[in-house]
Specification:
CATH class of chain A: Mainly Alpha
Largest sheet of chain B: 2 strands, antiparallel
Strand order of the largest sheet of chain B: 1-2
Oligomer: heterodimer
Number of domains of chain B: 1
Shape of chain A: elongated
Order of helices and strands of chain A: HHHH
Distance between the termini of chain B: 48 Å
Number of strands of chain B: 2
Mean pLDDT of chain A: 84
Structural class of chain A: mainly alpha
Number of helices of chain B: 8
Structural class of chain B: mainly alpha
Radius of gyration of chain A: 20 Å
Strand content of chain A: under 5%
Low-confidence stretches of chain A: none
CATH topology of chain A: Helix Hairpins
Strand content of chain B: under 5%
Mean pLDDT of chain B: 82
Number of strands of chain A: 0
Number of domains of chain A: 1
Order of helices and strands of chain B: HHHHEHHHHE
Chain lengths: ~110, ~240
């Protein structure tokens, strides 16, 4: 049922994105959504019956039950892209603060 | 009112998602998966494993089967680092001041920790094809070591130019290795080195080489981002 937990985490992030007007909090919400999605994708690869991480010590181990390595590889990509977008978002937030002296989107319109 | 509206939309989306992803043939329940139905089955095929030679199958996919994808991923990270540098722009000389004065113990202790963290990251990068880890986490650990020095030492300033040169060289060598695969083998980023025994430190052909390059590139890129965030334009 960890998939439902991941979906709930995703929905929490979406709610935060809808209701917050603070740029930093919006970036945090985006990250929560991203973590939810990553957990969801990794959970797709789980296999029942004592599956272990897809790391072999020699080719004789191939008969064992392993979890699906492909979602893990895709999530590895997604995490790196997430770091990049978060860094870019925080950079934009810092330059917004430099111009308006506030992180709040509503206060920005008044002072400008 | 706005909060209620957002809450209702989120709730509706969550319910729809959970209902759509219920236990169907296209999307089985958690853990109720037969890998033989999936494309992932081929990664456990013994001929494929011996051809790539990486004991860590995730690494075999990321660098071996989908190496071109990883080149694109590194490029995205490079572009975002470039974007951060572009947004902060200008000639930056001064680093942000700390609001405390680090004492002797903090400075020396952080320098010792810097070495330990660096050694850990090198271990993780070099064992990317054998154990969990690899170039991306190892690079992030290198950047965290640089961040530690920034936070613990008020006079520290990393060698930004050196990081930029390191990043450019690592990225270029990655592409050159890919082109060598085109020349010496048949396809871009194809393995042209001997694979060796699965599970040995020196094995898996070009995968450790590429992961070391990725580690250097990611580490210098994230260290560059950290440097961009912790410096500002000289006001005087």
């Amino acid at each position: 049922m960890i998939q439902y937990a991941a979906i709930i985490l995703f929905v929490f992030g979406l709610y935060g994105l809808f209701t917050n007007r603070n740029v930093i909090k919006m970036i945090v919400s985006l990250n929560i959504m991203e973590i939810g999605l990553n957990i969801f994708i990794v959970s797709i690869g789980y296999v029942n019956g004592g599956a272990i991480a897809p790391i072999i010590s020699s080719t004789q181990d191939l008969g064992l039950i392993y979890v699906d390595p492909l979602p893990q590889a895709l999530v590895l990509t997604a995490i790196v892209i997430g770091v990049g977008t978060t860094a870019l978002g925080l950079a934009i937030a810092k330059s917004i603060y430099k111009t308006y002296q506030t992180f709040d989107l509503d206060e920005m319109g008044e002072s400008a | 009112m706005k909060n209620l509206f957002g809450f209702l939309i989120s709730l509706a989306l969550g319910i729809v998602l959970i209902l759509v992803l219920a236990d169907t043939s296209a999307f089985p329940a958690f853990g109720d998966v037969n890998l033989a139905d999936r494309i992932s089955e081929q990664y456990f095929n013994i001929t494929n494993v011996e051809e790539v030679g990486s004991a860590n199958l995730v690494t075999a996919i990321v660098v071996g089967f989908r190496g071109f994808d990883t080149l694109g991923e590194v490029t995205v990270l490079f572009i975002s680092a470039l974007g951060v540098a572009f947004i902060f722009g200008g000639v930056k000389q001064k680093r942000l001041d700390l609001n405390f004065k680090p004492n002797f113990m903090l400075r020396v202790g952080s320098n010792i920790l810097f070495g330990i963290i660096l050694v850990t990251s090198i271990y993780i990068i070099f064992h990317g094809h054998l154990t969990p880890g690899g170039g991306f986490p190892g690079g992030a650990i290198i950047a965290s070591a640089v961040l530690l020095l920034y936070l613990a030492d008020d006079r520290f300033r990393s060698n930004v130019k050196g990081f930029k040169i390191l990043e450019g060289v690592a990225g270029s060598v990655f592409v050159v290795i890919g082109l060598l695969g085109l020349v010496l083998a048949t396809a871009f980023l194809q393995n042209f080195l001997p694979v060796g025994t699965v599970g040995n430190l020196v094995s898996a052909g070009i995968i450790p080489v590429i992961y070391v390059l990725i580690g250097l590139k990611v580490g210098s890129e994230i260290a560059g981002i950290v440097d961009n965030f912790l410096t500002e334009e000289e006001s005087a």
